[in-house]
Write a structure and sequence with these properties.
alpha/beta, 30% helix, Rossmann fold
């Protein structure tokens, strides 16, 4: 069973205790995966997990979690999809250097041209995610 409420740490101090030894051991970057990149990791700050990771370690951080989509990774119904979501907030956070890289999952599985469309500003052409796109992976 999946537990999407589980967290790596409950406070910034706990997160630092987990990440500092990894950074000291030579990790160059951290891939900070969450369900929704736009949600803050800790109360009292707008930073997501990637933002906290970068601030605490000084290392590059990759954010991921429903990039380009508005729906849950695990929806209430197994056949429920997700609509395309705007990227303004993501781009603002990237410009502010909250994180260094962005990983894209389901949106790219649904639409292999997703990155090219975003690069060219063709946001109206982005496809909603349909769970059937996962069928081709099995």
């Amino acid at each position: 069973m999946d537990n999407y409420d589980a967290r790596l740490a409950e406070t910034p101090e706990e997160l630092e205790a987990v990440l500092s030894p990894l950074a000291a051991a030579g990790a160059d970057a951290f891939h900070a995966s969450t369900r929704r990149y736009w949600l803050p990791e800790f109360e009292g700050s707008d930073l997501n997990l990637a933002g906290w990771t970068k601030n605490l370690t000084g290392k590059q951080a990759i954010t991921v979690g429903s990039v380009g989509l508005d729906g849950e990774f695990v929806p209430a119904s197994p056949r429920q999809g997700a609509q395309a979501r705007g990227l303004d907030d993501l781009l603002d956070r990237l410009e502010r250097a909250e994180f260094d890289l962005v990983a894209v999952g389901r949106a790219l599985l649904q639409d292999p041209e997703w990155a090219a469309k975003v690069l060219c500003g063709r946001f109206g052409e982005l496809k909603p995610f349909e769970p059937t796109s996962l069928d081709s992976l099995s």
